Known about the structure:
Blueprint: H1 2-28, H2 40-51, H3 64-100, E1 112-113, H4 119-128, H5 130-134, E2 138-139
Parallel strand pairs: 1-2
Amino acid sequence: MKVRIVLMLMIPAFLITSTAGIYFFEFILPGSEDSKFSSVFNSLWWTVVTFTTVGYGDMSPETVPGQIFTFLVMAAGLVNFSIIVSLVTDKFHEFRSGRDRGLGTFKMKGHVLICSDDPTWMLEIISQNQKFAKEDRFGL
Length: 140
């Protein structure tokens, strides 16, 4: 659950910050009306293209502050992409390793876990809890 929250907050925050930053450094600060970054949508387009490392080349900053900001966006984009990949990979690994150990079949509530090396005692517990046995909610 935490991973989803981090991703849902990190990606929009990066997109908003980068879009606002390039819009400021390339359009507002120089005051140029003929800038390629004259609309928020164009700035968002540049952010997505830069973040995904596609780099079409259709838009690039022309001012020094914009170029410095672009360098920072590229570095942050690589870091963000690496974090996203590692979080997703970690969750996938957790799921697979849990499933391989038999944990994938149980939800973590509504079942009975019996830990014992005495088969007689385990059978007694199962017979006392027939409701769980019929629903296959025992973990031995």
